[in-house]
Amino acid sequence: MKQQTQPLLSVSMIFKNEIRCLERCLKSLAPLREAFPCEVVMADTGSDDGSREIAEQYADLVFDFPWINDFSAARNAVLERCTGKWALVLDADEWLEGDPASLTDLLKTNKQDNLGALMERNYKTPELAAGGVYNDFSAIRLVRMSSGIRYTNAVHERWDADQLIIRQVMGLMIHHDGYVGGVAWDDAKRQRNMEALRKKLAKNPEDLQTLEQCIESGQGQPDFMDFVRRARDGVLAKAAGWENLGPSIFRHAVNVASLSNLPETEEWIEDAHRIFPNSIYTKIDIAWIEFGRNWAQENYEKCARLAESYFQALEDYDAGRYDLLETLFNSLGYAAPNNRLRMHIFLADAYRQTYRPQKCLEELEKVDGSALDMNQVDAVVRTLVQLHSKTSLDTAPLVLRLWDELSRPVPTEQQSQARQAQFIRTAAAVFPPEYQENERENEKFHRHAYTLFLPLEGRCVLGGAAAIMELEDPAALAEKLAAAELEQLPAAALERALLRGVPFPDRPLHMEQADALASRLTGCGGFPELVERAAAADGDLQQICWARGLVLTAVRSCGWTDAEKDMRFARAFAAVERAYLPLCYTPLMLSPEGVGTLPLMHRFGWYCARAFSRLEQGDAVGYVQLLREGLASCPAMQPMVEFLTEHTPQLQAAQPPEELLALAEQVRAMLSAYAPDDPAVAVLKASPAYQRVAGLVEGG
After folding, report:
1. Which are the contacts of 565, defined by CB distance < 8 A and separation ≥ 6?
2. CA 549, CA 519: separation in Å to the nearest integer?
3. 3-class SS at 119?
């Protein structure tokens, strides 16, 4: 790929073992090489993974440069071999995107600019487009070769020049994914950087740039806060470079102070506004931090003002209307799309909290549902339901668009499904009758929040649920329920349909599905009634299985503190087990000899059903005896057994026959003659005589 004429631009690069990304970088140079006479000059600092072979396919010159722990030395060695009028410095984990023509003015004019800056986007997460987390900053990557400017510093290398005449080039961007997953900032590299920085700081303790680099690399170090305070104090003392480095240093200081809740935080924020009122760091990063502090204090009026100024500053930033020197050595912390998205959501809620519903709606309309994370989905839904409930604004277009965006497979189908599930989970909270009662008590109540989701009928389970909440007629409810996805249907909607007499289940259900649905209904106010209805109904196997799921859920979740309700649960459990067990198990398994082969809860259910049958026959002693046998087979049910023995009315009124009382007294006397672990005690308890009076003996 030898150039026939002197190149206008040389692309300079050092690399080592970059097989993951090197070809991507080199391919991205194709538009640049088509637009201008270019050469690519590369130094291999010790590759052994095949990177060298990739480089030789694309570069005009590849040479070896043994690594000597000095980035500037390696970069300068490449620059010395470049023959272009200008050089563009790139790394292997970067790639170019945009219009190469944006370089034309810089490369082909004879103005006195000696350095050029491109916007660089540092990605922090694998999603390089929608949903990705990244920071942008101006990176000085272009140098006029005749200027003689070269790199200095072994670590955190920078251009060695006293007077920087810099041109910002818009329209061409460097993308960088070397920090994804924290790969570039593991402990070893962090420690290596800190060792070099401490040596520099020892030579020049007041150097603001080194202090700022210590802040960036020194988190977790014992003297981290010392770096922060020294850098801030240096700016206040107007140390060398304070005007250019001060805004980003103050941004670091305020961020650290706020996260640590230092008492100086407000003072440092005021200093930033006083000293650097027009800085892009003050207008974006410090505004973001201020917003968070005021949000925590519920100062929503000030939050709205801060967010509005934040977005105005972003417009200036995106248009390049700021001092470019500020971002040449550092990046903004809170200008990335995810930060902007979060601020739109917060601002919408701030407008809602300050009773500006139209502005709240307009702000929510700026939210891209396909870029939301789970917390953001939750926040958007909560704000939207409040806005809908307390105003007459037309929210239908917004909720329809939001659902469509959530459903896009961006960046993956799995994340889309997670967003949808979170949307449904958050929205389900507005369906219970208790929520609606609370809504009506609010003086600004206009309509029930669940009606927000009516436009989604046929597109989302929430739409069908909202339609169910609007109906009373059992036939119409049955039709809506038949079309619903039961697994995602809010429990309150299912409860409403069942309490109004809709036959259920209306489709075949696996046992696991029935149990899951029953479990979701436990928090509903009508659950006890649903349990009793299901237990009393005569039905087919599907309905009996549904009743089984309800009563098992009831006894497992019961606190056994409500004498009336919990006794109804216990009787329903016995009734359903009496109907269910013969349908599913053989007579042998349902005999005293075979009951031990049943699953645990059905084993207890067998005893419980027989116990209530004895009670209905007037045999209170047999009732207690069977409950105790059931407890022996399933010790986890002790709270239920204790509840029943204490709250069954027949036990309170029943007077055992004199002969049983006398027999019980004899058994007690015999037991008292032996130690509890004596084998004779076990023999006695297994005897028919003991079994007749076990309830009297053990119950005192």
Report:
1. 528
2. 8
3. strand
The Cα 491–Cα 103 span in angstroms is 61
Contact 569, 522 (CB under 8 A): no
Length of the chain: 700
Residues sharing a CB contact under 8 Å with residue 457, sequence separation 6 or more, in sequence order:
463, 464, 466, 467
* Cα 202 to Cα 195: distance, rounded to the nearest angstrom: 11
Tally the C-alpha atoms within 13 A of residue 160's C-alpha that lie toward its C-beta.
Answer: 12
Taking the CA atoms of the chain, what radius of gyration do you get in angstroms? Answer: 37
Cis status of the peptide bond prior to 357, with omega within 30 of 0: no
What Cα–Cα distance (Å) separates residue 664 from each residue in 19, 472, 630, 680? 86, 59, 21, 17
- End-to-end, the C-alpha distance of the chain in Å comes to 101
User: Hey, which residues does 77 pair with through a beta bridge?
Assistant: none
User: Which pLDDT tens digit goes with each residue over 319-350?
Assistant: 878 887 787 667 888 988 889 999 999 999 99
- pLDDT, one tens digit per residue, over 251-293 is 999 999 999 999 999 999 999 999 999 999 999 999 999 999 9
| Cα dihedral 82, 87, 88, 90 in deg (nearest 10) | 30
Asked if residue 513 lies in contact with residue 487, where contact means CB atoms within 8 angstroms, the answer is: yes
Q: Helix (H, G, I), strand (E, B), or coil: what is residue 96?
A: strand
Contacts of 296 (CB under 8 A, 6+ apart): none
Q: What single-letter DSSP state applies at residue 470?
A: T
Ordered DSSP codes for 457-469: TTTSHHHHHHHHH
